[in-house]
Design brief:
Distance between the termini: 52 Å
Oligomer: single chain
Structural class: mainly alpha
Shape: extended
Order of helices and strands: HHHHHHH
């Protein structure tokens, strides 16, 4: 009984990761077709969201793999952090522009979210 449960969990995990990877690969394919107008990972995520919203893919089909990836997400950012450390001089040279962009972008997003919330509240 225990072996059957483990096999079932492994099969669920593998099938959900396969679905997630298929969406990523399809997104990369469409990115090449669009001459890299948008990153393939973003297109793949949009494709996955569309398939989930339309009901073609059920959430239960991807939950196991997505849960695993979210649980280990911090470990997946280690290579990115090391890459940033390799370019500290570039960051230091552009620190003012980065800070201004972050502050302005955050302010704009907060204002837009507040406006949208108020608009939706008035509508309902």
């Amino acid at each position: 009984m225990k072996i059957a449960f483990v096999c079932q969990r492994v099969a669920a995990w593998l099938s959900s990761v396969l679905i997630l990877m298929a969406c990523l690969w399809a997104g990369e394919f469409f990115s090449v077709l669009l001459n890299h107008l948008l990153p393939g990972s973003i297109l793949g995520m949009l494709l996955l969201a569309g398939l989930l919203a339309s009901g073609v893919i059920r959430l239960s089909w991807v939950e196991a793999g997505a849960g695993f990836l979210v649980r280990w997400m911090s470990l997946l950012f280690v290579p990115v952090g090391v890459g940033v450390l390799d370019h500290l001089d570039l960051l230091a040279n552009n620190l003012f522009a980065i800070v201004v962009t972050c502050v302005v972008g955050t302010t704009m997003i907060m204002a837009l979210a507040g406006w949208l919330f108020q608009w939706l509240e008035r509508k309902s």
